[in-house]
Records
---
Amino acid sequence: MPDASIEIETILRRELSPTILEVVDFSAEHAGHSGNPNSAKRGTHIRVRIASAAFQGKSLLEQHRSVYSLLGEFLKKKGIHALELKTEGP
């Protein structure tokens, strides 16, 4: 089964054709916390930095909604507790 961060990167590249895309799994930093009670090293906390022409003219809230509309079901299915987003236009 592919790593959640790789799957997220694949979805975002396919759907938003980003000019910048960084996907980092920082689950280990939250080991033992409520969102990661089993101290999983991967798959509970993901950080994304993305720039895309698809965000042009959209507010920050609209940009984040665009990403969540693409990833929402995937995040639930995988049990990802936190998605930290930094979005920007081209």
---
Amino acid sequence: MAREKKAFPLRLDAEIHRAVERWAEDEFRSVNGHIEYLLREALRKAGRLPSGNRPAQPTDPDSASDNAEQP
């Protein structure tokens, strides 16, 4: 089941956008998809992502070590 998406305008510094664009290409994601991924990971690491929205398995190599550090 697809999650509802909320559309909103986002203004970024051109240099930041170029950096995210290159990073997204390296990860085979769209810029929009990569920004969403980065936000989701930041929210997860900060403990601010509701439990129903957490991925079942880590999505990057750093996630495994992050999970080990939590009590």
